[in-house]
Structure formats: C-alpha cells, structure tokens
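chain below, 267 aa
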Amino acid sequence: MLAPFERRLLSVTANESLGAYRVLKAADPGGPTPAAGQFAMLATAERWGVGEDERPYLPRAFSYARFLDGEAHFLIEDVGPGTRRLCELREGDGLWMLGPLGRGFTAPEQARRALLLGGGVGIAPLAIWQDELRAQRTPATAMLGFRDRSHTPGAALLGDSLLACDNGSIGHHGPVTDLLAAELDRDAHATVYACGPPAMLEAVRALCAELSVPAQLALEAGMACGFGACFGCVVPTRDGYARVCVDGPVIDAERLERVGDHAGACR
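prediction:
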C-alpha cells in the first residue's frame, strides 16, 4: 500500500515518554493502513524551520511503529533540530504526514521461524511486524540492543524480548548480534528481520551470508521526497543502485555486498 501523492494534516493525539525516546501518536482515520516496514515523511504544521526567515527543514522519514484503530505511532529520539521539534508536539497540534511509503517486510518461507533484531530507534518497524506475525501465528523471537539503560525502556514496544546493552547495564553485555549468533547456532532454520545502525546491519548481513540464512534489512538514507524522484537515498546493491524510499526500505540482505555507513536507522 502506497500513500496518495499528497501529504495529510493530522492531529497529534499523544506524545509519550519512553525512556530516552518519545512515542508520537496521530489520528489518521482516512489514511491507508501501512504494512510493517513502511515509513512516513513527517513535518510539524507550525515552527518547522530555522533562522529569522524560518527556512523550512526537510520532512523526516520515520518507520511506522504501530497503526491501531486509525492512529499512527512513531518512535522518535531527539538527535537534531527536526526531531527535537517533533518531540515538542502536544495533543491537538498539527502534523503533516506523507505515507505509507516504501516496501515492507514479507513473511518467512519454508516454515522458518522469524528472528527480529533491532538496534536503538531501529526497533520501531519490528513492533508492528511482531504484531502481524503474532496474528499469523508465526513463531518469532525478538532481540533488541541499546547503548545504555536510559534507552532500554524502548523495549516496551515489543513483547518477550531478549536485551543487549553496550555498557552492560542490563541484559547481555555486548552487541545484540551476539544474541543473534547464539540463536542461529541453536537453530538456523529462520528468517532474520533487522533494523538498526549501519554497523549492526552489516554484521547481520555478514553472519546471515556465512550461514545461508535469509535476512531482510530495513535501511535508511537521507531522503528529501520519499517517492524516488530526488535520488538522494540511493545505496549500492549487487545489481546496481537502489533507492531506499521506493526499492526499500526493506531490502533482502543477499542483494547487498555490504551495508554502507549511511544506510542504518539514525535520524
């Protein structure tokens, strides 16, 4: 499902704290229902710019974390002026949204179980995917990695998750890919779904290639349009360049020689 070629003005219904993150919710009763892994381009209706002339920011791309009863949920971390402005929104404020956009996850084949691997804010699309897999009664294990304890409350977006923390403050002390390696060593008949920073995605790609395990990676790159017109988000693949906004953001790992430094979940 792709959005109509125009943005919609939505009303913010909630902006909730979740540790170092915010969960921004907006009413979108007339919008298309997104598939897990799709994204939307967001901008505030007011004060979306900088300087005396309020030169506007580009809209920001965010994966859908959930879509419940016509309400869209997005996971946001304050990492710059655009995300900071989104974090300031309150109930009733206006939010411009263009979405859903891009290609999402596809179900495992050959009765494989699903392994969901998320890093930081990249856990967002795995939440809605976990919901869909549960509805399909597909076995799934979620493994989530965070940099420190202040970010681990984000794990509440998913249920029954194994945790890893870079500084060892909670769960496994080390990268979340350690948990993935252990799971695949126990049973490699799985499909891996991953979204997170570039180094994590590259480690997932390399590990799955070594073990011949199918993997779907949700990439991100700088976007200006979301429709493939500006070619600002291209990433190299084995068969040429792909535009993350229309050929992804979910791309089969086997298509990639490697995951570049600009193709991970960071905003």
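Helices lie at 81-87, 124-135, 176-186, 198-211, 244-247. The chain has two domains: 8-101, 113-255.
thats it, cya
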